[in-house]
Specification:
The chain is an alpha/beta fold and 367 residues long. The protein contains 11 helices and 14 strands. Magnesium ion (MG) binds next to α8.
Length: 367
């Protein structure tokens, strides 16, 4: 039994509906196990721009720092699409990641057998299933490096270049080492295979990435270690996804590879994520999908990714493995009984349901 303070950031679009669903499921778990989850709802993203003029206020970040954990829905929408980069709703995510020092982003990509028809891959590519843990570095690299614009000088033929824009990929040994260790530790507890993804044939930052990886690998002789250039990794992921266990990579490559992994499992609506910092610091848990403004407020969103994110919170921040397992089993049970939100309703004989009913169906197994 325990009391846990959760900062809930519904954000924009379907973020509100899916976080509400996740909190309902958490309450069902609380009832069963005698825990108490105390929620504090906070604004971030587009709604915070409307209310306070910025995507994330220092007060909101402070509230998050004081919480035991953060549950986030999604941010962004067409209303704020024309704002300059630094003022967009997405800025809230970067400021939360940076402000809470959430350097390790865990994105599991699992193919649920019940949903294998939703995968765009052929059966022969899926014969070993898909159960990959992507570990994305989240507070460094291109996302946090120097960027700007400057006069671009001249082209080889002497014509003016106009302005030039630049972003910087920089990684230190310490930043690489701490994320790589997360990868090895996870691999050790799973199928003991780690794939490091970089672009060491071109980028100096990737060459250091690989050097540090190889150094740390020596401490984990029980883990099979391999590395791929990111372009090859993108190809192998669609050809033989079943051969991957844990993938560790940089912020930018992780952004791309995790969407690819999401797509091959069938629906981004099923994918949770955890962003973790130093032990003792609050983690942040959010569905991988975005705010989907086109279906917002229509009871069409798949709540599973947010509910599974809540399960990750229980496991990784609160050490409540049994409770997390129960939520994951409840999701599988709802799928087994044929319930599908529109994004995963691929077969004729499934039972099409909305966000609210899907949530109820998941909660039916948590009694
Ligand atoms: C993600 C998203 C974000 C990112 C955006 C919304 C800033 O794509 O979490 O993968 O690029 O990290
Ligand atoms: Mg992304």
């Amino acid at each position: 039994m325990g009391v846990y303070n959760i900062a809930v950031i519904p954000g924009d679009g379907i973020g509100t509906e899916v976080t509400e669903a996740a909190c309902k499921v958490l309450d069902a778990v609380a009832g069963k196990f005698g825990h108490q989850f105390v929620y504090k709802t906070l604004l971030a993203g587009g709604c915070a721009i409307d209310a306070h003029g910025v995507a994330l206020t220092p007060e909101t970040l402070n509230e998050c720092k004081k919480s035991d954990s953060v549950l986030l829905g999604a941010v962004g929408g067409p209303k704020w699409d024309n704002l300059p980069g630094a003022e967009r709703p997405e800025r809230a995510l970067l400021d939360l990641r940076g402000g809470l020092e959430l350097f390790a982003n865990l994105r599991p990509a699992i193919l649920y057998p019940q949903l294998s028809s939703a995968s765009p891959l052929k059966d022969e590519n899926l014969k070993n299933g898909i159960d990959i843990m992507i570990v994305r570095e989240l507070t460094g690299g291109l996302y946090f490096g120097d960027r700007g614009r400057r006069p671009g000088g001249v082209m080889p033929d002497g014509s003016p270049k106009g302005m030039e824009a630049f972003d910087t990929e920089a990684y230190s040994e310490a930043e690489i080492e701490r994320i790589v260790r997360v990868g090895f530790e996870l691999a050790k507890a799973r199928k003991k295979k780690l794939t490091s993804v970089d672009k060491a044939n071109i980028l100096e930052s990737s060459r250091l990435w690989r050097e540090v990886n190889e150094r740390v690998a020596k401490e984990y002789p029980e883990v099979e270690y391999e590395y791929y250039y990111v372009d090859n990794a993108a190809m192998q992921l669609v050809r033989r996804p079943g051969d991957f266990d844990v993938i560790v990579t940089t912020n930018m490559f992780g952004d791309i590879i995790s969407d690819e992994a999401g797509m091959i499992t069938g629906s981004i609506g099923m994918l949770p994520s955890a962003s973790l910092g130093k032990p003792g610091m609050p983690g942040m848990y959010e569905p991988v999908h975005g705010s989907a403004p086109d279906i917002a407020g229509q009871d069409k969103a798949n709540p599973c990714a947010a509910i599974l994110s809540a399960a990750m919170m229980l496991r990784w921040s609160f050490g409540l493995g049994e409770e997390a397992d129960l939520i994951e089993q409840a999701i599988c049970a709802a799928l087994d009984r044929g319930y599908r939100t529109p994004d995963i309703a691929y077969t004729q004989n499934c039972i099409r349901v909305g966000t609210k009913e899907m949530t109820t169906r998941v909660m039916e197994s948590i009694v």
